[in-house]
Design goal:
By secondary structure, the protein is an alpha+beta fold. It is globular, with a radius of gyration of 16 Å. The chain has one domain: Pnp Oxidase, Chain A (Roll), CATH 2.30.110.10. The chain has a seven-stranded antiparallel β-sheet with strand order 3-2-6-9-10-5-4. Strands 1-11-12 form a three-stranded antiparallel β-sheet, with no helix packed on it. The protein has a two-stranded antiparallel ribbon with strand order 7-8. It has four helices and twelve strands, in the order αβββββαβααββββββ. InterPro entries: Flavin_Rdtase-like_dom, Flavoredoxin, Split_barrel_FMN-bd. Keywords: Flavoprotein. Its cofactor is FMN.
Length: 165
């Protein structure tokens, strides 16, 4: 039996977040699930986004963004913000997310997030059908003990139990 590459990649579980970027006061957001830590010192992350996304040129031009980790009860928010901007005009308003001023970037942070990572783009590369954005974390805003929303097997899931407790 031949194993299909995409089916195998769908088994890679990951957290779900909202990537926010702003230009001239216009705050755009998208749902992302392809991101991870890539350095501890200095603290850095990598985020993968479609080069066709409406947010990609904003992140490229402004070189800053906020990555907000979503708690598991925000499945509907992830779905709303995951739609294209042509389908959902104002994702923040539609999803009923509230924002606050960030400390080190001009992009607002999400109040309902588990954590907000204020980031500065260090590198950006085209890799296959996605843009890879490497960013330095400038500031961390709040850390909540809620469990994160997870993307697994092409669906949104929750974390049920810790194996070490």
């Amino acid at each position: 039996m031949e194993v299909k590459v995409q089916e195998a990649l769908d088994k890679l579980a990951g957290p779900v977040g909202i990537l926010g970027a702003s230009k001239d006061g216009d705050h755009k957001v998208i749902t992302v699930s392809w991101f991870t830590q890539v350095s501890r010192f200095p603290p850095m992350i990598v985020v993968s986004v479609s080069p066709n996304s409406s947010i990609t040129p904003i992140v490229s031009g402004q070189r800053e963004f906020v990555l907000s980790l979503l708690p598991q009860e925000m499945e509907e928010v992830a779905r709303i913000c995951g739609h294209t901007s042509e389908n959902v005009d104002n994702k923040l308003e539609t999803s009923k997310l509230s924002t606050k001023e960030s400390k080190h970037v001009k992009v607002p942070s999400i109040n309902e997030a588990i954590v907000n990572l204020e980031c500065q783009t260090v590198q950006q590369h085209l890799a296959g059908d996605h843009s890879i954005i490497v960013a330095k974390i400038l500031h961390v805003d709040k850390i909540d003990d809620k469990k994160p929303l997870i993307f697994y097997d092409r669906d949104l899931c929750t974390v049920d139990n810790s194996l070490s407790k």
